[in-house]
Amino acid sequence: MATPSVRRSSNKSSLSKTSQTTNSLPLVTRRFAAWTTEITLVIVSGLVPFGIGAYINSRSDVSRVPLNPLLVVTERAIARPLALPASYGIRNVAGPTNYLWIIALLAPLTLSWWQLYLLAKTGSTIPKRRFGVRIVNEQGIAPGLAAVVIREGIGRWTVPMSVAYILWRYSFAFPNLGLFTFLAVLMVLGEGMALPSRQGRRALHDWLAGTYAIDSNRPLPTSSVASKGQSLPVRANEVDHQEEGNEQVAAPVMAIATEAPSLRSLWRRMRQNPSLTLFGVALTSMTAVLATLIATQVYIQTQQTQRESKQINSQKFLALVKQLSPNSGATNEERQSVILAMGGLNDPQSIQFLTDLLVNETNPILVDTIQQALTSIGTKTIPELKNKNQFLAGELASVGNNPQEKELRQKRLQINQQTINKILTVYSGKTESIDLSRSQLSQNGALGSSFFNLVLENVDLSGVNFKSANLNQASFKGSRFRGVGEDERLDTYDDAIADLSQTQMKQVNFTDANLSRVIMTGSDLSRATLNRANLSNARLVGANLSSTQLVSADLQNAVLENASLTGADLGDAKLNEANLYGARLGRVIAIGTQLSSANLTKTDWQGSDLSGADLERANLSNANLSATRLTGATLRSAKMENANLRNADLSLVDLRGANVAGADFQNTILTPARQDPADQFVQTPDLGSVSAVVKGVDFSKAKNLDAKQIAYICTQGGIHPNCP
C-alpha cells in the first residue's frame, strides 16, 4: 500500500542557511511572518505609484487634466462606507498622476489575485514558500481556487472586517477613522492568531475553507484508509512548546484534526433518519406555503385599497373640476374653497391641474389661493412647477417685440417663480433631492409692473440641485446649502450638499451663507456678495468671481483652479491651503488675506494689493506678481521659483526661507527711497523698519537684480555671488 505524502520539491540541498534558520521557528510565527510579507507587498505595490503620482502632482511645471472617472468612482466608493467626505465635482491633476494612480489602484488587485492563484494551485505563495508554510485540504493537496477565495476573501477579511465595521459604525466614536483602523487590525490579527495559538485549533478562515496550515518541510502522518478514498487526517497548526527553565523540546507536537462537517456527512445522517428528514421537509414546505399565501393576500389587499383610493380621488377631482369651470357660476369664495379642497387630494392629477390653473388665472385673489394649495401639498409639486417654469421661460424667449405678449408671459413666469420661492421657504430643511436644474428663477427685466427677485434668506437649502439654473440677483443671506445626512453628522459621505455648478449667480447675495463643500464648478458669481460666507472645501473650478465681495470669507481648502477673481475683494479672507492653480487675480484687494500653504502656482496677481497678507509656505511658482503691493506680507518658506516680481513693492516683506530661484526682480522695491529732507508734509519711518527681511535668503539664481538691490541683500544677510 503506497504511503500518500504532500508533493514538494526534492532539492532540499538548495536551501540556504538562512532558510534553515527561518524554518526552525515555530509554525505560528512563520505563518504570521509570511502573511505580514504578503500584505506588505500588496500595500507597497499601491503606495509607491501613489506617492510618485502625488509628488508629480505637487509640481508646478506640469499640465493639468481632469481626474480619471475610474478614480472618481473609486474615491466615492471608498468614501461612502468609511464616512469620508467624497471630493465631488471636477478635480484637475497632473497628466502623469492619472496613470500612476490607476496603477496604484490596479497593482494591489493584480498582486492579490496572483497570490491567490499560487495559493490555490501550489498551496504556497512566494512568502509562504520562503517561510516553509503550506496550505492543504483534507486530502493533503493544494486547496483549489474556490477554497482559497473562501479562506482569504470571506474568512480572513470579510468576517473580521465586518465585525470591526459594525462595532465602529454604531459606536460613540463614529466617524473617527482611527478607531476603525484599530478595531480592524485587532479583529484581523485576532482571527488569524487567537485560535491557532492553542494546540489542535484552526483559525476561522481555515475552518470555513476546510484547509490546514502545515510545515512543508516535514512529512505528513500516513493513514491506512487512504486507499479506500477517505480523507487523510493531516497535521494542523504546529506549535513548539517550551518547558520551564528553557528546556529543549524533544519532538514537535502534532494534532490530528477531526473531520469537519460537510455535505457528505449531512447526507449520511439524513439517510440514517428518514422519518425525521421527511418531517423536517414537510414542516419547511408547509411554512413556506403559508408564508407565500399570507404575503400574496396582503399584496392583493394593498393593491385593491390603492385602486379604490385612486378611484375615489378621481371622482372627487372630476367633481371639483366641474365646479371650477367658467360656466359653473361659482363665486370667488366658492372657487377658493374648491381650489383648497383640490390641494387636499394631494395626487398627481390635482397637482398638474393646479399648476396649469396657476399660470392661466388672472384674478390675484385666486392666484394667491392656488399658491396656498400648492404650498400645502409640499415639495411634491416642484417637478411639475419646474416643467412649467422651463416651458414659460422658453415661451418668453421666443416672443418677438410685442410688449403686451411679453408682459403677459413675464407675469405668468413670475407667478410660477413666486410659488417655487414660497415652497422652498416653507419647507426649509426638507429640500434634499429637489431638482431645480436649468430653472429660470431670476428676473428678466421689469416690464410695466412685473418684477421678481428670488429671496430665500436664512433658509436651509441643503441638497437642492440648482445645476445650470438662473439665479441672478437672488438673495440667500444666511442660508445653508449643506446639511447632515442620515447619520446626523457633518463631513461624512451622506451630507446633503447643494449642486450649484454651471449656475448663473450674478449679483447674488450670499452674505453669511454656508456653502461649505458646495459644488460651484463653472458658475458665474461675478459681482456677487459673499462677505463672511463659509466656502471651506467648496469646489469653484473655473468659476467666475470677478468683482466679487469676499471680505472675511472662509475659503480654506477650497478648490479654485483656473477661476477668475479679477477685481475681487479678498480682504481678511481665509484661503489657507486653498488650491488656486492658474487662477486670475488681477487688481485683487487682498489686504490681510490668509494664504498660508495655498497652491498659487501660475496665478496672475498683476496690479493687486497684498499688503499684510500671510503667504507663508505658499507655492507661488511661475506666478505673476508684477506691479503688486506686498508691503508687510509674510513670505517665509514660500516657493517663488520663476515668479515675476517686476515693479512689485516688497517693503517690510519677510522672505526668510523663501526659494527665489529664477524669480525676476527687475525694478522690485526691497526698501523705499530715502525721503527728501525738504518734504515737510510726509514723514517716513526709519528705513530698517520698513525694509524686506532677506537674511539667509539665496538670491544666487534670481534674475535682473541691480547693483542697489544686491548691495541691500548683502548688507541684510542675504546670499549672492557678488556679496563680499
TrEMBL record:
One of its GO terms (cellular component) is membrane. Pfam families: Pentapeptide, RDD. Residues 26-210 form the RDD domain. The chain crosses the membrane at residues 32-56, 99-119, 131-150, 170-189, 276-300. Signal peptide: none annotated. Keywords: Membrane, Transmembrane, Transmembrane helix. Gene3D superfamilies: E3 ubiquitin-protein ligase SopA. PANTHER family: BTB_POZ DOMAIN-CONTAINING PROTEIN KCTD9 (PTHR14136). This is Pentapeptide repeat-containing protein. It comes from Atlanticothrix silvestris CENA357.
